[in-house]
Amino acid sequence: MMGRIRQWWIAVGVAVVALGAAATELAVGDGFGSAIKAFVAGALAALVAVLALTLPGVTWRGLLFGAFFISSGLAAWVFMDQPLVIWVLIGIQGAVCLFWGWPYLANLKESVKLGTTWLGVSYWVFGVIGALLVFDVGVTAQRIAYAGIAGLAVAAAVGLVRRTGVDLSIGVVAAFLFALAAILLSGSGNLFESVHTVPPGPWGKSFEYRFWGGEYLLYHPNALAGLAVMVAIRIGPDKTFAAWQRLAVTGVAGLVVYATNSRAGFVLLGVAGVVHAALLFWRRRQDVPNLPDYRSTRNTLAAIAVPFVVLGLVLVASGGVQGFLGRERYGSGGVTSGRVDTWKFVIEEWQDAGVVDKAFGDTKTARAVVKRPGGEGLLLPTDSSAVGSLRRGGVLGVIAFLLGLGLVLWHALAWVIRRGPPAEAWFVMAAIAAVPTMALNDWLLGGTGGTFWVLLLTGEAYLLAKSQVASQETVSV
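The chain above was modelled as a monomer; its predicted structure follows.
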């Protein structure tokens, strides 16, 4: 009876949200057809939120941890002209992590073993040193703040896992799902339209065909697609979750990749699908924690096919290989949307820079953004974690980045390489998928866009803590 009552209230809640989205469209005079589309989009947004609420293993700490990162990322787009709002959010995150991260020295000492620490913190430290050496007080102060926040986040993740033994990554992806629900609801009036709401100014120029959200809640399409795919990577291959939940997150990922027209999200889901297939066949020789056992070859092949069917539908609906993967997004810049031009510019500036900038990274701005000719005056990211490590941390940043990526892969594949403790399937998938996609996005470097980084951070911290507990139990026996 209680289960039926809950289902009834869920249905009512979804209907209310959907009707609210439809009523909004009618109120602004967009017509009955647009209202029907908004109704469907509003219902989808509500169902995504319901999906987040049904996930087992969500803790308020993990949820809050993920919410900090996704909120600062959203604020960077919503409050582009109001940096004070962003800094307030970052300050709140720092205060909470300051509380969670105690004892700092012990947790930071432990965090050096994490590859994600080297990926997301080291370049800020090198950047601080570089700014100090060129006597830029403003850049130094900002970078100290960024480095402190990143370091406290790592200390908090390590400390929480060591004290509670809880896997924070489930709460993190629940926060991602709530953010997706909010963005879908905000953009319900244009989700199923051919022309979408875009940010004002040059950022949204010629990008009206990509879904960004709504006027009051915007997020970059690639970051939005990445968010949905990360949820699918975390939930999809884990038998802790019900089959319908695993299917649902994969479907949501496909929908968001299609709506955002994101090649980065497409590649991330594709690589994760390939690793998922390999793990299911490898399972016959060694058990992978929490990887579902589909009991028959037929069921296993069906499970393997799911992400590729979703990707196939996205490809067909997006115009095929040429219309989607081979499309030139701008009037210039080729199929990489200007990434290659940005990378060339970063390397050329590095070659012409002084010794300090070569060793410790660009010192002109706090976040080492790129302002290249032909970029319409935009302060661009590098759109590559590898190139970003050079821009932000110089040669030392690249070395630290490669060390961090190597450690993440080592921990993910320790059970294959050296018969170490096996990592969960999702972490193996995420670690390997990070390698090709580091050429498409900055999301491995932490910061306001570091959603992939925080997911890997919580997963790696839990893996190492669990390994240490197992080792201590073995020694005591």
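The CA atoms of residues 225 and 257 lie 5 Å apart.
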